[in-house]
Amino acid sequence: MRRLLNTLFILNEEAYLALENENVVVKQDEEILGQVPLLNLENILYFGYKGASPALMGECAKRKIGLCFLSRHGRFLARVCGMNPGNVLLRKKQYLLSENYEESCQIARNFIAGKIFNARTVIERMKRDHPLNIDKNKFDDLILSNKQDFEFKSRQKRPPIGKVNALLSFAYTILAHDCASVLEAVGLDAYVGFFHSDRPGRPSLALDLMEELRAIYADRFVLTLINNRIIKKSDFDEKENGVTLLNDNGRKIFLNNW
Question: How high is the mean pLDDT of the chain?
């Protein structure tokens, strides 16, 4: 059974990651802000631009530790991946299935069925817990508090418009990374999918898997942050054109509860 380890989130844009004695060391200028043994890590998500040392990136690849670089607002930049483990025959079978239209459609149907089932589960649970407040046809009705600050009209992304869209986009970015890491850990190719078509640079299979998990993990998490008043209006930066992004404090609150 695969052992589940920790994810290290680095939010300090001025931080630089280095390797020392099998530890990831977080530095700012000459000051050491902290260090964590690589033995305890499964993923490292770095929100910033200063980057990491080649030695650390190489060791993460060797140990199959996912090292993902994102902008301060969560836009994906790059991932460090080691040698793809597992049986090459598994990946060859994956490639053959992806080229077979009927087989691909059947697998895509399973992803869609899982997505619908999990989304329905989230709605039915909210209806059971709050029978007088929930209209099963609107996501906005699942937001039970701070309605004046967290109104949701429609899904808008790239860039996100509104606070709820900012939260959803941030959650989906992290979930996509987690799905890609899991797929690569078992030897599958995260970039060859069935529901999402092939496109250079797009982890299609990770996005396929994420479709099943969006509602039950990301959407429920966002609703919990809002309904329990964990996240607040002051945790966002809103631009004149309507683009909304989590600020430094908002990202800390989000990741501390993820």
Answer: 88
Which of 80, 100, 131 lies at the terminal end of a domain, its last residue?
Answer: 80
pTM of the model as a whole: 0.83
| Same domain flag for 98 and 225 | yes
Q: Domain of 69? A: 6-80
Dihedral angle, C-alpha 165, 167, 168, 171, nearest 10 °:
160
Q: What DSSP string describes 91-104? A: HHHHHHHHH-HHHH
103-115: average pLDDT: 95
DSSP structural state of residue 247 = -
pLDDT higher than 70, residue 4: no
**CB under 8 Å to 218, separation ≥6 — which residues?**
168, 171, 172, 175
What whole-number distance in Å separates Cα of residue 67 and Cα of residue 244? Answer: 26
What's the 3-state SS for 165-187?
HHHHHHHHHHHHHHHHHHHHHCC
Say which residue the tokens 């607040």 belong to.
Answer: 232
In which band, very low, low, confident or very high, does the pLDDT at 86 lie, cut at 50, 70 and 90? Answer: low
φ, ψ dihedrals at 163, nearest 5°: -65, -40
